[in-house]
Amino acid sequence: MFLAESFRKAFSLIVHLDAELIGIIILSLQVSGSALILATLLGLPLAAFLGFKRFPLRDVCISTLHTFMGLPPVVVGLFVYLLLSRSGPLGFFALLYTPTAMIIAQTILSFPIVTSLSHSAIVSVDPIIRQASQTLGATPVQVSLNIISEARYGIMSAVMAGFGRVTAEVGAILIVGGNIAGFTRVMTTTIALETDKGNFELALALGIILLLISLLVNSMLYYIQRKGAVGNR
Amino acid sequence: MKLGLRVSQIAKTYNGNDVLKDCSFSFEKPGIYVLTGANGCGKSTFLRICSLLEPPDSGEVIYSDEKGAVPRDTALKRRITLVLPKIGLFNKTVFRNISYGLLVRGIRGREAAARVERVLEFVGLGHKKDQNARTLSSGEAQRVGIARALVVEPDILFLDEPTASIDRKNTEIIETIIQQVKVDGKSIVVMTTHDPAQAERLADFRMMMHDGKILQEIIS
Questions:
Q1: Is the pLDDT of residue A118 over 80?
Q2: Residue A105 CA neighbour count, 13 Å, CB half
Q3: Fewer CB within 10 A of the terminal residue: chain A, N end or C end?
């Protein structure tokens, strides 16, 4: 009975587009979206570099990135906190407990995922594509761009996987954002807080939205992977 | 300006195996040059070296035109094209596959579209232009590979076993396309085949490769 009532109130919040709920969702998407854009802008060139260039310690770089895919969010949160705290090396920017600090933490979390999976997508492109591009008169840069283009579905999957990681994350942003109402309070941190307070309606409403976002992301991922899975000739 | 090719004493070794030994030949007159030989005798390696896709271990590959030797740069590489036995179709539409060679040369828009449409009609695939190239049959894929090479109007077109893995009907279509390419009287087509009958049908100039050497030149 209690559970049913909580769900009823949660759906009511969603259906009536509750202002607090919408504000939290928008901030969450802004933070995660910005982090993902930054991670992609930094990660894709690195993925391409690792995919196309051979240099000493390349394998070490790739292994490190793979290892960092499983970075514990609280450790990232702690690391960013120490960097941005008043006595830290970047303390003078006064970024702690701001959405910017949350974006930095989520960028660090999603960067290894976007980079590693994009790198895997790039090196998985059939070597014949490189040769075919060369025989058609492409310069080395044009060949590389064509290979990246051929890896586009894998790269999109990488970005989606990164998005899935940051939207579900709570530890890092709680530490560096501080969960300040109307300023740094996002979906996951609100769920944690409201559950502690026994205010399950808002927590459940946000949980449902989070699940819907996750469903949407995974559906897109499935669609992208199916679209890209066309046999090679 | 007519482009010619002379290869002189080229040799290539893979993993200790001498694939090519002292191969020399000149491609100067327009027409279809057919290189025959058993599978694994070095035909593909010869073509890859001639088309500058890989360097020989020794020997020379010299392109020249009326002005003399042509430097081995991007401009030269854009005057020759090799169609590989495994085509390497891009995961894009047929149209975008064929327009790629034009795109890298900075040819876009209406001119590119017109050239692609023309070559698509030439290979009989006008109705497939919006289809993903990787969903085509083997024969159609081979025709896209040839169309992709023809659209850039190369001075020398190299075809590595263009009908090795396709049915008789598509083989006939591709042989017709190859014969039509030389109609302009300017183009040089260099192709490999393991089928002596096909060589007989298509060749203006025949070469035979055996044990890494070009053994004979038969003027058809």
A1: yes
A2: 35
A3: N
**What residues of chain A lie within 8 A of the CB of B131, using their CB?**
none
Residue A33, domain CATH: 1.10.3720.10
Q: How many domains does chain A have?
A: 1
**CA proximity to A143, closest of A151, A215, A164, B85:** A151
**Which of A135, A139, A150 faces B82 most closely, judged by CB atoms?**
A135
d(CA B33, CA B22): 19
- Asked if residue A233 is part of any domain, the answer here is no
Q: How far does the CA of residue B131 sit from the closest CA of chain A (Å)?
A: 12
Could you give all domains of chain B from N- to C-terminal order, each with its CATH number? Answer: 4-219 (3.40.50.300)
Residue A55's pLDDT band, with cuts at 50, 70 and 90, is very high
- The whole-angstrom separation of Cα A186 and Cα A181 is 9
Distances in Å between the Cα of B106 and the Cα atoms of A129, B78, B109 are 20, 12, 10
pLDDT for res B116? 97
Structural domain containing residue A32: 2-228
Which residue in B74, B134, B148 is closest to A139 by CB distance? B74
Q: What is the pLDDT of residues B14-57, one digit of tens each?
A: 988 899 998 999 999 999 999 999 888 899 999 999 999 999 99
B74 burial (CB, 10 Å; 0-12 / 13-18 / 19+) is middle
